[in-house]
Amino acid sequence: MKCKHCGIKIDNPMIFHIHENRCLEDQRANGFIKDNKENDIDYNSMTVEQLKVICKDKGLEGYSNFNKDELIAFMKEKIQL
Ligand SMILES: [Zn+2]
């Protein structure tokens, strides 16, 4: 299992759980995390080009003629955050 906060790999579920909680506290204390919104990517602040790069990265298709609003809706539907 991989810690979603620091990316470290830990195989023992119990140690993983302890690590993850500590890691979360650490990162919060260091200001890396604001609330629980770190996974909430702000698509609105990106350009159409940046959004299309992400779509390409994710292997999505059929978005080439979309405008920004359509792209955002498309991505929210297709990409599980
Ligand atoms: Zn960690």
From TrEMBL:
<protein>
    <submittedName>
        <fullName>Rho termination factor</fullName>
    </submittedName>
</protein>
<dbReference type="GO" id="GO:0006353">
    <property type="term" value="P:DNA-templated transcription termination"/>
</dbReference>
<dbReference type="InterPro" id="IPR036361">
    <property type="entry name" value="SAP_dom_sf"/>
</dbReference>
<dbReference type="Pfam" id="PF07498">
    <property type="entry name" value="Rho_N"/>
</dbReference>
<dbReference type="InterPro" id="IPR011112">
    <property type="entry name" value="Rho-like_N"/>
</dbReference>
<feature type="domain" description="Rho termination factor-like N-terminal">
    <location>
        <begin position="42"/>
        <end position="73"/>
    </location>
</feature>
